[in-house]
């Protein structure tokens, strides 16, 4: 129909195709990882902190953009599960030499992850993440503050369950504890705030982002937004206005295929976690990966194997009262003490959202004495699913 064609044209015209990133990635195709499982998809979600245009009142426009949020979303080949892994913006990574917007080239550098986007946009960020994880990034989506707000408002807000009251002067955000429905401006403040919420850490902020995404998916599923074209159109119309995507997703057809893959996902099989990391040895304000935990996580995503998340402190976290033991701890399971942490298998620092647990990290005797023998060694990570409710 004429109305349908007009809607199709509007939505397709809203999205900005990231042709420059696609061209840049083609230049480096030989160095990129190979996809191992047909049908599985990895999508890099990038939240830009640009202050240009409609985002001016969120701060000074420095003329450059950084990735305020980076999430690697893995969709299983059978579309029965999804795993969203937050990558901290302050994670120390090796950023390859990238082409800058002005045509010049940068030198490879060991720096914070968010510098990759500032240096060479989405292509540089994708190459950095691929080198870090050895996972092929099939698609990417980048959205700015305005696009995020418009998406939430188009859904008539997103219900959340807050563990504590929120009073953030910088964000102009005051919310009571308990069940609230966040509008676009409130939602943006909620996922961006740091100092006034929780323990003020980036860890706590990423946990809130993950919970919000779970609530967003729950709202879309509960209101049948993903199944009802009349409800889906205004949401897509709002979301696509500030959306930049790879050419394959920068069309209504591409987005519809993505939405169709998400709509049948059981919410209990949509998992959120943060990559295992700890304070960077040379700068406590930066992060570094915890190995072999991070490698185990990336390997499972590469092979399209399920990622297990557990709520709370894992049973072998070596924690008392929520505090992680140091990697040097030699205490065993006797006298009520937790098993020692093997060398190189250190848990992340106290208070962090993700703690690594790997049953196979202990020898057979220690494992049997501490918990009994599990059927098989499997990695599990502290995280949550899209059905978690902080009020429950």
SSE inventory with pairings:
Layout: H1 2-14, E1 16-17, H2 19-27, E2 41-48, E3 67-75, E4 82-86, E5 92-95, E6 109-112, H3 114-133, E7 139-143, H4 145-154, E8 158-162, E9 166-168, E10 173-175, E11 178-182, H5 184-192, H6 202-222, H7 229-240, E12 243-245, H8 252-263, E13 270-274, E14 277-280, E15 283-289, H9 293-302, E16 308-310, E17 356-358, H10 364-370, E18 379-382, E19 384-385
Parallel strand pairs: 1-12, 2-7, 4-13, 16-18
Antiparallel strand pairs: 2-3, 3-4, 5-6, 7-12, 8-11, 9-10, 13-19, 14-15, 17-18
Helix pairs in contact: 1-7, 2-3, 4-5, 4-7, 5-6
How would you characterize the overall build of this protein?
- Helices cover 31% and strands 21% of the residues.
- It has helices spanning 2-14, 19-27, 114-133, 145-154, 184-192, 202-222, 229-240, 252-263, 293-302, 364-370, and strands at residues 16-17, 41-48, 67-75, 82-86, 92-95, 109-112, 139-143, 158-162, 166-168, 173-175, 178-182, 243-245, 270-274, 277-280, 283-289, 308-310, 356-358, 379-382, 384-385.
- By secondary structure, it is of the alpha+beta class.
- It has one domain: Aminopeptidase.
- The strands form six sheets. It has an eight-stranded mixed beta sheet with strand order 1-12-7-2-3-4-13-19, with helices on both faces.
Features:
392 residues, alpha+beta, eight-stranded mixed β-sheet, three-stranded mixed β-sheet, 10 helices, 19 strands, globular
The strand count comes to 19
Shape: globular
Q: What is the straight-line distance between the termini?
A: 47 Å
CATH homology superfamily: LCP protein
The whole-angstrom Rg is 21 Å
- As a percent range, the share of helical residues equals 25-40%
Low-confidence stretches: 51-62, 313-376
Summing up helix and strand content along with how strands pair, one would put the structural category as alpha+beta
Q: How would you sum up the major sheet? A: 8 strands, mixed
The percentage of residues in β strands lies in: 15-25%
The strands making up the biggest β-sheet line up spatially as: 1-12-7-2-3-4-13-19
> How many separate helices?
10
Query: How many domain modules?
Result: 1
